[in-house]
Amino acid sequence: MANNIMAQNDTISLQEVVVTGSRNAVDVRHLPMTVTVLGREKLTEQYQPSVLPTAMQQVPGLFLTNRSVMGYGVSTGAAGGINMRGVTGGAGQLLVLIDGHPQYNGVYGHPISDSYQTLMAERVEVLRGPASVLYGSNAMGGVINIVTRGMHHDGVNTHINLGVGSYGTIQTEASNQFRSGRFSSTVAAQYNRTDNHRPRMGFEQYGGYLKLGYDFNEHWNAYIDADITHFNASYPGAVTSPMYSADQWITRGVVSAALENHYNNTSGAISVYSNFGRHKIDDGTANPDNPTQRFFRSKDALTGVSWYQSARLFEGNRLTVGIDFQHIYGRAYYTSKQTGEVLDTPNKQSGKSYRNEIAGYVDFRQDLLDWLTIDAGIRVDNHSVTGTEWIPQAGIVVRPLPSGEIKAMASKGFRNPSMREMYLYPPSNEELEPERLWNYELSWRHRICGLSYGVNLFYIKGDNMIQTIERKNVNTGEIENYGLELEADYRIDSHWTLNTNHSFLHMENPVVAAPTYKGFLGANYRCCKWSVVAGLQYISGLYTAVGEKEQKENFCLLNTTVSYALLPNLTLWVRGENLLAQEYEINLGYPMPRATFMGGVNIHF
To answer: I need a labelling partner for 319 at 20 to 30 A (CA). Which of 172, 375, 405, 567 fits?
Structure first.
């Protein structure tokens, strides 16, 4: 699938070919959903080790919580919550994919932001709005699909990036890509660490990625890949309630294998994948003289098999059918620090440490006229605990101009409750049902004379949201959000490009980490050996607490990266963040650092 991602030039603009909204490579002008594409050049121009900071800048409606220079962490006090239009990935309502494979595990069922590293990404495709027809549970708010790197021409490419900066921060990355005939490989590794700007807030990370591919002939190819990250993190607690010895040792990874076929009228793939996680957490203590006596541990995973085939039955048609199977399993427990023995754990998981999910889906797209496309899909999803769910979607695309299109979409999203919500800790409830929402959107996109812009209106209505009421998880919450998203890119000349995006969000029931306004203005300048990337981001009405003690934050961030090609294969770079030295919080009680700087060298040969 990833090998077929390409760009098509015309006299107006670069037309994007995407896979996330359809499983097969298709011109985004024929899809009714809203998709933002970030290529590798965009992902690497600021020398960020993670894809998420760039995605937050470039994708309207997407917001990421943070608390430090580097590292998001897990458990109490963690950051890295991904929020789309007021629907949060911290609750598992937004899905991260790697090559179309879901990235969540058995017990907690949500993404871990420290896992999504730039070293493995060829591009990132962000679908705003439900994608549950194709991707099932957790895709109710949207998906972030990381398409992994591949080598497409014979030769060897090696990149090394080294950087140091504020608060003892170090980021390093090395990658090698090789292709000879039908065989290709990508190998990458990284090491990052920082003391961060507060005591007892250190972070250290090791990561690696491997992908091996083989083309049997022009129609069939296969690949295997593996991605793993391990990080050690500490958190100091909120400034008003400091914590001690709150440490985490986390390992997350995924291994997958796929066999793909590509013909003129049909394409598809069968793949197997396994996500795994090992977590060891010291919850910490408010009294350093009274340390905790146990570690929280969990071992959990998700193993899946996915098959789809897409075919053109007749002119202008595309039919995609698929089957997904997931075996979701895990175990959470405590161990004694002194003896290592397993302690009693307040859960109801006995005999229920796994769940199975099987689903089938059909998506039908038809170009009725040169200027009109319709799309409809449905998924039937059976979960071994919560039962069967039907998920439909429908959309239409009208192209009144060769360079512009109007899109309308109605889609259902859902999320099955996680093991934690059903079985772990006293609030658990074995009777929970899936969360559900409907999303409606209308958009206009146009390209003319180097300018590309889009306008998107959306309305979200959801119920059955899982909330904790009187120490019990129940399906009582509701979502009713609506908003407006704007985006534009303009290439002034061969040296200057500008881009901007804005999102306005109204929530009937506000949630934490969802700003009512997010705006970004970026400028890129390239001339001779110099490159400058600057971005100004303004956040308004960011909820850091809701309810009776509601709190909001407003702040403006200026980030700039400057690079200079000292030699043909050697580039020097420096990156400054929060150059206006703003004082602000994203997580309540965790002040963000003032101005920080990183500098380094990028070597490629």
So the answer is: 405
